[in-house]
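Morning!

As promised:
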Amino acid sequence: MTEMKLMQGNEACAAGAIAAGVRFFGGYPITPSTEIAETMAKKLPALGGCFIQMEDEISGMGVVLGASLAGRKVLTATSGPGFSLKQELIGYAACAEIPVVIVDVQRVGPSTGQPTSPSQGDVMQVRWGTHGDHPMIALSPWTVRETFDAAVMAVNYAERFRTPVILLMDEIVGHLRENVQLPNASDITVYPRRRPTKSRAAGYQPYEPEQDMVPNPADFGTGYRIHVTGLIHDYTGFPSGSPVVTEKFIDRLHRKIAIAQDEITHYDEFFMEDAEYAVVSYGGVARTAYEAVRKARAKGLKVGMIRLMTIWPFANKIIEQTAEKVRAILVPELNYGQLKYEVERAAAGRCPVSLLAKYNTLLFTPDEIVDGIENLTGGRI
Amino acid sequence: MMKQLRLSGSGGQGVITAAIIFAEAAMREGRQVVQSQSYGPEARGGASKAEVIIDDAPIYHPKIIVPDIVLSLTQKAADNYYGDLDRNKGILIVDEDLVPDIPDFPRVIKVPVTRIASEQVGKMLFTNIVALGVLVKISKIVSIDSARASVQKRVPPHTVEQNMKALELGYNAV
């Protein structure tokens, strides 16, 4: 472990991305994500990397896709309003299978909303904001230290699956400073950029999938010819109108991530051994939920907690198991209700799922969530 | 023992920086810390508040529930942010020139922090570090040595001397 530092969540995000090999940042600064751009601007040039501030979030997304195709590991960071602008190119990255990590430090929306206030209102926009059928990976850290790990993981998943990955932060964790000890560089596993395994003479085709269903298209400038398009394409990378090609392509996009879902689904369980009620929580709100669950336990309520780090793909299995076991689930969210409906879908009637929604710019207090738990239990201990 | 400190003022007075330095000093002494802030969309002006929680155990909920100390550098900040102080144990520290209407609270400490910064250090810019000195003395959470080390680390190199002076002046003003 390295020395103890007082570090901000946004700084930890930048540090994690750099540790995972990111050497190109393009974007447009926006509260509450700006410190990520600032940190990258400060650190990347000294590492032989490149920082570029673009004229808006759309070109910020375009420039990182270009750099990724040219072989760099890339990051862009924004908040809800900027994320909305990036959506078209996020779909392009999903279709053309371009590794990229997009950080969304959530603030209150819609539109420019409340720039400096926390929210979890982008859970669904990161999943479904870009059009068409596509899988999505989104990770939501709850501490500064985990933000570092989540950034490393996000870069690794983007490279491994050749897909856009969302680091779904919130203002609470993004702006929070905590004492952290980061791991030594030698203890960090970094997934290398995938490279062609065949020569052109041996029949290399850029979009031919490997065993893990992910292709190894060559980076630009490495001696291979490559064509990149947002149109559905065959193994050559050129568009195909074939129904067979289309169906196989859309299947593969989903299945390359679905077959690894267990491996990329990260969550914590707290006090679940004898729990009769459960709180399902994520991001900065999980910190308050944890405090509330401890307080409720002290009152004798048999409540536990599932803390989701992987938001997408959704952690169906653990929610199914939890719903099987408990009498009711509470989902506190800093929005009008988003992930609650996913929890409810996975619970599939095994137990009721209640929403505790807050959207007035303030974080929950532990007592508000304790009240939510008490309402759930109906006073039954 | 958990301690909760709130530093408040107007955007640009440096309360967030002071809170960061205080948190870093506590970290130097092996404590767990979380530091958070809330401010409006303005770069300057508007209400600004920074919070520091210090404990020996990991801290989960990152916001203050009942502050032990509230420091306010403007009237608006004092009016807005002293309300949840514990009436028995809590301490309200105000800039005596900028907070003319002292809130009705049992324990109020008045210090002319802004005046000390402009008249004795030379610039109003050092108000936050004078205030930090006051906080270090009153809160008894971190040593002045830890505070000195953190100030040294966080401020621009060419301002270290003046910031040290500001810290000492604040520390000795109460």
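Chain B has a mean pLDDT of 95.

Hope this helps with the figure draft.
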